[in-house]
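User: Here's a protein and a ligand (FE2/S2 (inorganic) cluster). What would the complex look like?
Assistant: Let me lay out the input and then the predicted complex.
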Amino acid sequence: MLTDHQADIESLLVERSVEQFLYYEAELLDNRELHEWFDHIADDISYRMPRRLMRENQASAFSEQGYYFNEDYGSLKARVERFDSEYAWAERPPTRTRRHVTNVSVSEDDDSLDDGELHVESNLLVYLSRGDSEAHTFYSARRIDTLRQTDESFEIADREIRLDQTVLDTDNISIFL
Amino acid sequence: MAAGDIPNSTAQTLQAARESLDEGLFPLEFFHDEGLHDLEMERIFAQSWVFIGHESEIPEPGDYAQRYIGDDTFIFVRDESGEINLLFDSCRHRGTEVCRAEQGNTSHFRCPYHGWTYKNNGEAAGIPQKSKAFKDLDREEYGLAHVPRLETYEGLVFASLAEEGPSLDEWLGDFKWYFDVHMKLPEGGMEVIGEPHRWVVDANWKTIADNFNGDSYHTAWAHGSVVDLELGGEETVGHAGTGESLDRHIHCDGHTTSMRGFEGEDVFLTYPDEIVEDLFTKDDLSEGQWELAKQALSFTGAIFPNFGFLHFGDTTDDPEKDVAPFFTIRKWRPIGPDQMELWSWGLAPKNAPEAFKQRMYKMYTSNFGPTGNFEQDDVPIWKSITEAADGQFAQSQNLQLNYQMGLEWMSEMDIDDEWLGPGFAYTENLEEGGMRLFHEQWYEMLAGNDRTDATGSPINVTEDR
Ligand code: FES
Ligand SMILES: [Fe+2]
């Protein structure tokens, strides 16, 4: 009985620390502290956003070939550093964003995971406000991550962003999800 | 509306346009004008050859994809006999759309309202309770409507809503000489990878048409971040007018392409040696076309009215990695005076090794499409032009935008007498004649004239016009 409780408490603690990390990550991205965010990217990262398909009989289908992002460490780093340039006009002024992270699920016993890795899924709703306008838009997605425990925090070792829109209602995607 | 009976407002618009165009100007307000949008849809988009898609997107019988011309929805579908059709997506009973998904495969389209069904070549196949309810109805007359004309060039399918007019071959004219280089250089041709990126942006379609018709001037500034990060070579992204590379702006039968390259060198758009050696072929190209490909580092261009392309070498997604080329085609679909949908496809040589095709697709998404390191910065600019054009000021002050670069009193501009291809090639890329050529054709079509009235002579040399 006692050991059961202990296991429950331990997994609750893990879930809580994962949630805290995702909230912290959202805060970094909302503040556009991109380099601090990138410090939490593992050097073997695969960061992907496949193109969603719209099919008559399938709720969730994604392209096998088409995508928006398919980044490794170097190309993701280049995307982060691009915004250091004073010519990255898309984010001048920066988009005002607010990331809402919900429906977090954590699993530790997935065969594909190495020691210290967690399979984490979450819903992400991002509010975006741009320019001198009242207009706003949202990106909505399910994220499927592999998080890896580090000394004090986590790093993102794998992320797949499953956007809900097929036809995007946005000028561009100049933020990280 | 017949060409003869032009309402006053249209006549005024045309008059204002003519006066501006004669000076190498264009009224700002035309980038946000409701009445003009309707006229453009009627006189340009319903009369032109509009790009639909590439054959390789629907390889198998029954494969279909929803496609649009202006506000009209069509089904781009390969039928059981392998033929490609473009069917108007509206049930012949009471108008319901019969295709519900963006893409898929089906032998029949079934109307959800009363159950009429159509074969994938459009023929009416089933009408529930026909013998009781529609005894005298002739099925043959009630198939899905086909677009009046559908033609293909090198796998690229174009449609025209006009029953009559120039064929696609005539519409493209000698510009095929240039586009052949892109499509026929690799043995087996080019194919589309994945599905097109689609995004709706609040910008007028003429902003992007201007850009693809030879805006070499914007590249180094608008895409300064790509330069800063060394994601492309200096020659691909760098300043116009340096004179260090072979810079040509080419106009041919109303379509344009801007090229950068190196005279006498083997550049081949920085395709790797093994692709050049194993795959590139002179078989379907002339000596001149081969020579052009050999020297070329990058091409940008546009086919009137709403098709654009980029074929770039020397780009990367990571300054630590080797450079590679990408090839992308696109269309801009006007939705309203201040809105369009962008469609963008990545392509690669059909017979290239899988890993190389993937690398090319990666280069495409790193540079263009909604997440492209170049394109992220373009679209908000086009949107802001459209915003500035709205309201009273542009109109009341008669604000004119300047497209005079390259006109004889503005800059030194020569025509390359030795140019190896058809049309005209300007010896510099510091000129905006491609945009003026686009405006001239836009004007002629709006006025109900023949587009070719605008396409004949060099657009930089004013006396000759
Ligand atoms: S509207 Fe299609 S069957 Fe009636
Ligand atoms: Fe650009």
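Summary: Chain B has two domains: 54-153, 164-453.
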